[in-house]
């Protein structure tokens, strides 16, 4: 089958002059010129989505951690690592229920599971692996971190403890919308003073006290002030060539986080990414395009992190209000990705995965002329994989039925007929490819699991320490 490639609408391209705000691709080497800090900053925003209505927890923790680090006079490198780890500290939390428990009170039970999951995810991703020990230790008391059993260097111990304190300060403030955070200052400092030398390092408590003496620290936590406060830290200002394998690893982390949100969609994003890459190759796209479409496939559903668990897991049909909430996820995906310079195309393709050629899709109501081949590939891969997966409201479908439904959707001008033809002709290859993505993924997870002994040790030791202190 020959595929007619659709031209990009409006000449949309990732090429351009970086000085004018665009990003130029280096055609001699496989990768993208990106500000890696900007990528991490914006992708970490999806972790905050888990708060649903309160979507700034990670950013507030990063803001407070940065303020403590500044007061302590940490060097630039140490500050950068602290800030990024604080943004990603809850990488192990995908469920809105679990998030609510973690930020609902100062003292919480069983906090170590998400530390371990976050550690495992980050340690398997080259550009983020250096942050994993800090994430693993962000609910461990100072007296445990300082006893030398956790194999952290002094800088890592200090950073993990700073994030822990910032996280608990935010937990004390969360849920109290009515009181100005500044009014809670003395009460919060009183709690932290009692924990000094035990849960928190005395130096960290003192640094927070000094930072908290400025009213501006508390005003900076407001939703409208926070983006302005964080803007100077949100990008590094330097563009480096990030290779496609590294970018794919980075995107896979966030694919895992969204897949972990719901047991019915476990592995969905990872499989869609793999199917996208294969379908793009079958459609004759070049290697760079294949890799970019794979990244779009991996990230297409990251907006689902903002959809409440109750809607994603509902076994019956969604009512009108639930459907309206659910349909927002593609818009959220687009909003997050479009903020990354160099990701403009990826944002378009990922955010358009529920659009239809006849204009009946969502959230932008695009139609055929607005949907380039790459967007159409993500849409076909998404439907193909979803039909093959059990959902709360139906069982996984056999291949014959999947072929039928895809054919119907192509005839109704929901999906691209050429791409559907390719998917039908190569259904077995695509299925194996989706499974292969999953298999490779499981290998990677088992490798990470063997590296997670450190975090397990933490959990066991910390549980013992807590029960000792409680008795
Ligand atoms: Fe947290
Ligand atoms: Fe979706
Ligand atoms: Fe999807």
UniProtKB/TrEMBL annotation:
Any one Gene Ontology molecular-function term assigned to this protein's record: phosphoric diester hydrolase activity
Organism superkingdom: Bacteria
Gene3D superfamilies: Hypothetical protein af1432
Domain HD-GYP stretches: 32-224, 243-439
Lineage, top ranks: Bacteria, Pseudomonadati, Pseudomonadota, Alphaproteobacteria, Rhodospirillales
Annotated organism of origin: Roseospira navarrensis
Domain HD: 54-172, 265-387
UniProt cross-references to InterPro entries, sorted A to Z: HD/PDEase_dom (IPR003607), HD_domain (IPR006674), HD_GYP_dom (IPR037522), HDIG_dom (IPR006675)
UniProt xrefs under NCBIfam families: HDIG
Region called Disordered, residue ranges: 1-24
Name of one Pfam family that matches: HD
Name of the protein in question: HD domain-containing protein
